[in-house]
Amino acid sequence: MSESDSEEIEYQYSDDSDSDAEETAAPQEDSGDEERKEESKDEKPNPLKTPSGKHTNANPNAPPTGSSRFSLSPDYSSPSSSTEDPRLVPSSSLKGEMLNVLEEIIEMLSIPEEAAGALMRCFKWNKEKLIASYFDDPERCLQKAGVLKRVRMLEDRQDASAPTKTSRPLTPSRTSPRTATRSTPLPPSSPLPQTCLICCDDDLTPSEMYSMPCSHSFCCDCWSGFLGNKIDEGPSCVYAKCPQAGCEEIVSGEEVKAMAPSKISQWDKYELRSFVDLNKNTRWCPGTDCTMVAITKAGVGDVKCSCGTSFCVKCGEEPHTPVVCKDLSLWLEKCQNESETANWILANTKKCPKCATRIEKNQGCNHMVCQQCKHEFCWICVQPWEDHGANTGGYYKCNKFSDKSNSDDQSDAAKAQRELDRYLHYYQRYHAHSQAQKFAKKQLQQTEQRMVQLQDGSAHTSWIDVQFLKTATEQLVECRRVLKYTYTFAYYLDPSDKTGKKERFEHHQEMLEKFTENLSELSEQSLDKMDRTGVVNMTRVVDRFVKNLCKYVEDGMEIED
Amino acid sequence: MSSDPRIRKELKECGPDNGSGVFAVPVGDDIHDLRGEILGSEDTPFQGGIFNIEIKVPVQYPFEPPKMRFITKIWHPNISSQTGAICLDILKDQWSPALTIKTALLSLQALLCAAEPTDPQDAVVAEMYIKNRVEYDRKAKEWTDTYANPSVNSGKIQRVVEMGFEKEKAVKALEENEWDEEKAVNALLGM
Ligand SMILES: [Zn+2]
Ligand SMILES: [Zn+2]
Ligand SMILES: [Zn+2]
Ligand SMILES: [Zn+2]
Ligand SMILES: [Zn+2]
Ligand SMILES: [Zn+2]
């Protein structure tokens, strides 16, 4: 989806029941514009009105062409889930959907079944684009998709059955002699031995030869070897061309069925896979070996699959509010490039700044307490923890990047050093929350195990009594994830911003960070010492802060709450 | 299907002296391991050069393309000056089983006549090709004379080596002194 430059922001909390949720329409105008542009572009050629004669009202059920993106028909989903967007379905259930689209195209353009798949793939399953291109210049459109000969051959056959119809001018393909295929072997009166250009066997009978509609014939063994090899190579086999050098005609299921029948089920699988891969509105669940597919109309949003994987339907990464997909991919690439530089800073142990005892961070919280000297410090900046507290009026003061170096030095080396420092500042915090997120996930698993145990036995605490802890830990995972991406987001904010946007964002971030650390500390206590009311309240508070922060970004960071 | 009958037939048609300016022969007994030869075309910096090509014919041949690499060092935007790796579409995704080893070698010969600097294999060479064509032509010719021509520069190298210098140092000194034997020898003697 990288072709889209739109700055859509994915709002994970769009279902927030907040009454002012409607106001979010304005900052979304980027994506809105794009949508509108595409719509008007695609509205021009209406296939049902084009002067092609025979196609008029070919398919009265064809959906309106206004929508630029191919959307899966609404009657496909069950009524209860039809409003859900995005939603998840097993990939096998998309086969019918794919065939429906092909059916429509076959009827609308009067093309052979075998040509429809290649045509749709060529236009990335964007029906409207295909139709527009076809009625603009059918010859070029069919040529581009590699189905020209296939379509013309069907027309020739139709012409043959209706010999009075002579409306179409002769095309070169019609005059070229059609060599033997299995379906139309040469008459037995011409048993000239034939040569296969692949295996160089020059003593073949016409019945041992086969060709696609482009008439380039090869022996059946070579066809079988060629197709088998292409299919074994993987999903790209659906783009295989005729074995003749320079021939642009695309292989279809017809040839596979005829010459490599044992591979047809694999071929069908790759066709379906390509349907999901190319479609703008579908995305495979990135979970290992998962065959679920997310379908989306709006093209944005987060889903949680039954396999446990959550992902952004636009880019396939873990949900990443408040960062937009484009910035996230830039960030991930940068992190990969800088990984060596950043590693020194990320050792999993740190020395206590007071007594120099090595301390291993094994919990999610950044509030470290040295076992040796009881010194309290911040894991990220190694400053005393009290400097981060509300009592000093500082709140969580660790999130702002302050350029301490001599910024008067304008040499390239100094500039590069400052830029690296700036990146490391954000990366360090991004990474710390990422680690804490992993820790919270582990904690969540343990909590779930504990709940199962409690359900089985009859301990002092009942199952319902620890439900609050599960909710709290889930909230914690969520907070860490959002916090992690707030640093990616902040990295891409204009560092010289004078409008106060950045400052306000950092304020929200700081608040969320502070309360997340509080919740983390509270929920890491052992069960018997745990302040249950405190945890429940803090979970609510933190939930509020996550929503505030996301809403603030969603509103374009203009409105203060 | 075994590809061996086809390879044998191909080898018959593209043996030495077939008149096309390219040929291929097996290195040893294995017909999947071939050595090809291309003559540099006239009116190109590769004129007079004989370029050796390593050809590995895969088991899946001809459904998969033969793997080719320049053994002779060559200065060309689409061929690595370090490894001899070739960037040519028909040796990759544009391969068709109806093509042959001979047609592939002829395509390589054509590539030497018309480079594709926008799809380079060697970025350094490609940059020179685009920015300083005169210098590119000079260097390509120098490399042809040095590495691909048994008569011109190799004679100079031979004579310098016979004076008691190591071959590598002799080539370097000659290169640095624009193939002036006397200057190169003086440089080697530290004069
Ligand atoms: Zn054959
Ligand atoms: Zn063909
Ligand atoms: Zn899944
Ligand atoms: Zn995304
Ligand atoms: Zn200590
Ligand atoms: Zn700190």
TrEMBL record, chain A:
Keywords of this entry: Metal-binding, Repeat, Transferase, Ubl conjugation pathway, Zinc, Zinc-finger
Cited InterPro entries: Ariadne, ARIH1-like_UBL, E3_UB_ligase_RBR, IBR_dom, TRIAD_supradom, Znf_RING, Znf_RING/FYVE/PHD, Znf_RING_CS
Domain RING-type: 192-402, 196-243
UniProt region (Disordered), positions on chain: 1-91, 156-189
Compositional bias per record (Basic and acidic residues), positions renumbered to this chain: 34-46
GO BP of this protein: protein ubiquitination
Catalytic activity: [E2 ubiquitin-conjugating enzyme]-S-ubiquitinyl-L-cysteine + [acceptor protein]-L-lysine = [E2 ubiquitin-conjugating enzyme]-L-cysteine + [acceptor protein]-N(6)-ubiquitinyl-L-lysine
Name assigned to this protein: RBR-type E3 ubiquitin transferase
From TrEMBL, chain B:
SMART domains in the record: UBA, UBCc
Enzyme Commission code(s) on record: 2.3.2.23
Enzyme class: transferase
Signal peptide as annotated in the record: none
UBC core domain location: 2-149
SUPFAM superfamilies: UBA-like, UBC-like
Source taxon at top rank: Eukaryota
Ranges for domain UBA: 151-191
GO MF annotation: an example: ATP binding
Active site: C87 (glycyl thioester intermediate)
Sorted UniProt keywords: ATP-binding, Nucleotide-binding, Transferase, Ubl conjugation pathway
Keyword ATP-binding on entry: yes
Pfam families tied to this protein: UBA (PF00627), UQ_con (PF00179)
UniProt-listed PANTHER family: UBIQUITIN-CONJUGATING ENZYME E2 (PTHR24068)
Family: Belongs to the ubiquitin-conjugating enzyme family.
Protein known as: E2 ubiquitin-conjugating enzyme
